Amino acid sequence: MKKFIPNFAIVLAILVLNPNNSGAQIQINDSLTAEALVDDFFNSGVLVSISNVTFNGASADSISPRLALFTNGNSDSLNMDSGLIMYTGSTERIAGVPPDWIPIANYQDSDIQTMTGMPVNDCAVIEFDVLVEADALAFNYFFASAEYASFTCSTFNDGFGLFISGPGLEGPFTNNAVNIATIPNSTTPVAINTVNSGVSSYPGNEANCESANPNWIEDSQYFIQNSGNEVNDLLFTGYTENFEAYMEVVNGETYHIKFAICDASDGALDSGVFLETGSFEGRLLSGLRDMERKALYIYPNPTTHFLNLENVCTECSGNIQFQIIDIQGRIVAEYQKPNTDQIRISTSGIEKGIYILNAMYNNQLLAYKKFVVE
């Protein structure tokens, strides 16, 4: 395993050292390479090892105006505080900053064109391989666009896909890939015409949304309107709720991941996908499928001397193992506790900072949670 947790040290350094982070507004850092964005931020290192990162078919050690790190999202009314942005324009514009003019190659992607059924432009495409030491892959994201609400149900159906290919998967895209960027409880791709306000921009265009998603009006529950920037300072006039992408895989195998976002029909208005910091992870299901698995609830957080945990594993017998891991991936404390309804973990003697608490049973990861020691 390459890492235990995402490199929160780098995140903290950027927040502290960047003077533009002083205001309560989303901050954009476009000085990082695609490889750094994927491996140091998006990657959790939990049961996954990433390699061979590329951007738009080239080496990922260069910087692109289509990629950036965002921070301070919670202060700007987003439900996601930080992560990687893939954008069909220059990322400087996302927070309302006029970008410096630089030429950007008009990259294409055949899978997005297949998915949207339209010509595509201005694509941003990240690809990498991942060795998965787990039974499933998961991560969090949301989609945003300046096409809302003026071009809802139009032919400007900007699209993106989060494609995975490898052992056991059979899909309609390159290398038999499957798209896991779908509306909850469906196989419908997330796009302008599938998740929106439920109201067509122009009377008579409803058929475009109906064709893309027969449940488009009902699925408006997943959409956040921002046409007057009343929600936050983002350029985007609308965006989706946070979604979880999830796919069961074969433990111990290597899979290929492709994240792609493109403008459809023209390149006039741009769209972006936000991938949450540290959310790309493997999940262990083997031997735990029949157990009632609950989230790891901890409090107080931030803490000073101890953490309380409730109902860690209702079906486990015997002891639960706990690890506290620092931002360099080092184990700073380990405990074994009898499995009871409430468990207390001491944090006395641990220096101030950000940590991860792992809960394990029979050497399998049950859950983990980030916490802060003050």
From TrEMBL:
Tell me where the signal peptide lies.
1-24
- Membrane-crossing residue ranges in chain numbering: none
Q: Which UniProt keywords apply?
A: Signal
Is Signal included in the keywords of this UniProt record? yes
Record-annotated Secretion system C-terminal sorting domain positions: 298-373
**What protein am I looking at?**
T9SS type A sorting domain-containing protein
Organism expressing this protein natively = Cryomorpha ignava
